[in-house]
Amino acid sequence: TYPESFPHFVRGRDSLREYITKLFTSRIAIYDGAMGTMIQNYAKRNKLEEEEYRGDRFADWKCNMKGNNDQLSITQPHIISGIYKQYLEEGGSDLIGTNTFSSTTIAMADYEMEDYAYELNYEGARLAREVCDEVTAKDPSKPRFVVGAIGPTNRTGSISPSVEDPSARNVTFDELVEAYFEQIVGLMDGGSDILMVETIFDTLNAKAALYAVGEYLELTGLDIPVFVSGTLVDQSGRTLSGQTGEAFYASIRHSKPMCVGLNCALGAKHMIPFVEKLANCVECFLHVYSNAGLPNAMGGYDETPADMAEQNKVFFENGWLNMVGGCCGSTPPHIKAIREMSESYKPRKLPDVGRPKMWLSGLEDLVVDDVHNHLGLPFLNVGERCNISGSIRFKKLMMAGDYGTAMDIAKKQVEDGAHVIDINVDDGMLDGLAAMQKFVKIAVTEPEVSKVPFMLDASKFEIVLAGLKWCQGKCIVNSISLKVGEELFKEQATLLRKHGCAVVVMAFDEEGQAATEDEKVRICKRSYDILVNEVRFPPEDIVFDPNVLTIGTGMEEHANYGVDFINATKTIKEQCPYVKISGGISNLSFGFRGVMKIRESIHSVFLQHAILESGMDVGIVNAHEMIAYSDLEDDMKMLCENLVFNKTEDATDDMLERTNYERACIDARKKGLPMPRKPRGKMPNLPRLQFDYDKVEPKPATEPPLPVSDVARNHVPNSYVNSKLTHETIAAIRAKATNPTKPNIDYAQDAGTYPESFP
Q1: Are the C-beta atoms of 600 and 647 separated by less than 8 Å?
Q2: Half-sphere exposure of residue 424: CA atoms within 13 angstroms, side-chain side
Q3: Is cis: bond before 755, omega within 30 of 0?
Q4: Which of 83, 136, 258, 345 has the smallest C-beta neighbourhood within 10 Å, fewest atoms?
Q5: Which of 95, 61, 56 is nearest to 77 (CA)?
Q6: How many Cα neighbours within 13 Å face the side chain of 714?
Q7: What Cα–Cα distance (Å) separates residue 174 from each residue in 171, 204, 235, 463?
Q8: Residue 229 has pLDDT above 70, yes or no
Q9: What is the number of other CB atoms lying within 10 angstroms of the CB of residue 654?
Q10: Total Cβ atoms within 10 A of residue 513
Q11: Looking at residue 503, what DSSP letter applies?
């Protein structure tokens, strides 16, 4: 059809991923503007009332339909096609979004049109496909693309609709996934080239949409570029659900979007600091489609095309963008002015590809590899007190259903230096599934708690998975292991990868728990090879727990447990690049419970060596009680060194003698005034242990991070023959479609249609 070279593009012949990469790196691409504004403008010049919204087909519909703009794709297709065409021809858009912002079963419930979701998406995309092809045919050197628009729905997974009950929700993650999946099938069957999850005010909703996209791509074997666009609601630079822009990106980057950015809510000039922050951290392409300023008193937008172009200029001057468009208040003249302004500027360069790092998020983001704790150690403190087995007080509160007071424990941990909060509600007398979900749903509404990432901790996989589905941020799941067998291990790991979380992998296998150094290394290396090579789990998101076991028990076979852990940690880090090493530190000193000074002194010595000499990164600790190594008394330090490293036969006995002394001191203090606490002072940050793979220089990126599928990695073109996508889940959606006639869903073009070269 067209030549086999950029800038020409032929569906089914050329890789759209390769094409978009060439386009976005050669110039700033142009997206469209507001659909709603254009419909409103049409209504000012033409009759567009209830009767027109209904059309002949829905003349007798049971409720009012005016305002359901997506429905116009069915009842007034000429209006929607006309708007598409104006953005393409007058605005000069390279890509246009479909009129499907609210076309999910969830949002269509307002008009009792849930059954028409597939058709609404199909028709919205089909009209765009036809207009794009018509305009492309006039100038094949500038192909136009259909972006399937996936809106946020009118419900939120992270925010309670009830003032009285912070755990209440009006939609679940699974309900969102189901609704989004149906929308995606309709959009792709209608001829979409790209999928855009947009106007994200709650990242949990976006994660559900991206999960549905991932399922569609897996079922079809296609490589469809995915764009993601968040909405920061005010000058705080946060989404409605409270996340910063960086935390939002950290939460969704696992889906390997090709382009990420911001739209709606604000005018371009109000977005400047937030776009700059994203430009400094986003690994893929970046876009902005802002409103035409802030709404006026009448709800309208006052920025002229020239005003809006001038407001966007700062993005172009700084080289922050690869794609630009407009949102509320923008029209084809606005897009034309922005396009003309952008033409003399270069697009944003993809950042260099450096060492992969674990990037977690709550309401705020956290790069684990860059963390230093309150004692100056390169170490992630995971707070242990919201764990039934780690806190008697927390257990009593959970048993009593006092979630409010339990939140105070979580807040206190953050105040005391916890970077991540461990949540564990395992107890035989408690419904763990219900308790985990309720705790998480309440915790995410508490800013002082949810600003940090969560570690969801349970012995049953279904409990952590249930909790994960209520977290908008990027969590750590604790834990999985090979003790369930290799197949189930891979199945669980694959599911966690799809949800985008990090994972703790215990040093267990089918034969039991690793106790010796060799066992720890063997099981962790086997787990690593399966996760990285077979599951394609990001190695930087793997946290191995080689089992911190109790020392000082008096049993000879336990005496070397500390040494084995420390030695194994270094070997695992050497053999398994980018992984983290964690452990439940309180296990180490369990034999000395009741005397916190002794326990924390042992922990201090253990961590000093495990972190600085072997590279341990993470630990479940009580940050408030931690003692700096430099604050240890010389004699206490010697006792702990002897015990941890099994240096003397009498190490346990010597420590027990000291423990009895400290216990006597505690009793004595109860009879008099408390002794003053030693001031800690400011601790210097100590250097992190470096491995060979940490010293590799970043290399230039040739394209955004690729999804895990083979079709994406090999740039296999989409066949655009949707009729061959016959998976039963997709077929079921088509079977219940409401289209009056059987729709055409194939869009393949002859390989010779256009030149086989970009663009």
Answers
A1: no
A2: 25
A3: no
A4: 345
A5: 56
A6: 8
A7: 8, 11, 32, 15
A8: yes
A9: 17
A10: 15
A11: E
Q: Which residues pair with 228 in a beta bridge?
A: 197, 260
Q: Which two tokens stand for residue 628?
A: 């700096």
User: d(Cα 614, Cα 601) in Å, to the nearest integer?
Assistant: 19
**Which CA distances in Å does 715 have to 100, 287, 548, 707, 756?**
28, 23, 45, 11, 15
What value, to the nearest 5°, has the Cα angle with vertex 523 and ends 518 and 528?
A: 125
Backbone angles phi, psi at 147, to 5 degrees: -105, 110
Q: Looking at this protein, which amino acid is placed at residue 510?
A: E
Identity of residue 228: V
pLDDT score, position 674: 55
Cβ-in-10-Å burial (0-12, 13-18, 19+) of 19 comes to buried
Which residue carries 């018509």 as its tokens? Answer: 134
CB 304 within 8 A of CB 278: no
Specify whether the CB–CB gap between 462 and 320 falls below 8 A. no
Residue position matching structure tokens 């600790």:
621
* pLDDT higher than 50, residue 601: yes
CA proximity to 350, closest of 321, 308, 389, 380: 321
Cα distance between residue 106 and residue 170, in whole Å: 11
Q: Is 512 helix (H, G, I), strand (E, B) or coil?
A: strand
The residues facing 513 across adjacent strands are 508
Choose among 369, 718, 371, 714: nearest CA to 538: 369
For the chain, what is the radius of gyration of the CA atoms? 29
Asked whether 373 and 417 are in contact (CB, 8 A), the reply is yes
Confidence of residue 684 (pLDDT cuts 50, 70, 90): low
Gap between the Cα atoms of 164 and 162, Å rounded: 5
C-alpha distances (whole Å) from 703 to each of 145, 221, 251, 278, 358 are: 19, 20, 21, 18, 21
- List pLDDT tens digits, range 88-114: 999 999 999 999 999 999 999 999 999
Tell me the CA distances in angstroms from 63 to 67, 70, 108, 592, 690, one per residue in order: 12, 16, 12, 70, 66
Locate the DSSP E strands across 20-157.
29-30, 95-97, 145-150
**Percent helix, strand and coil across the chain, each to the nearest 5:** 45, 15, 40
Q: Is the dihedral of CA 584, 587, 589, 594 positive or negative?
A: positive
Give pLDDT, residue 249. 98
Please give the model's pTM, rounded to 2 decimal places. Answer: 0.93
pLDDT tens-digit readout, 669-679: 887 755 534 33
Residues 6+ apart with CB under 8 A from 711: 221, 222, 223
CA distance 546 to 520: 6
- Let me know if 637 is exposed, middle or buried by CB neighbors in 10 A (0-12, 13-18, 19+): middle
In angstroms, the CA 397 to CA 625 distance is: 22
Residues 6+ apart with CB under 8 A from 708: 256, 497, 536
* CA dihedral for 51, 52, 53, 57, sign (positive or negative): positive
Instruction: Find out whether 339 and 313 touch, Cβ atoms under 8 Å.
Output: no
Instruction: Say how many C-beta atoms besides its own lie within 10 A of residue 650's C-beta.
Output: 11
Specify the residue for token string 């764990």: 387
Please, which pLDDT band fits residue 755 given cuts at 50, 70 and 90?
confident
Q: Give me the mean pLDDT over the 528-555 stretch.
A: 97
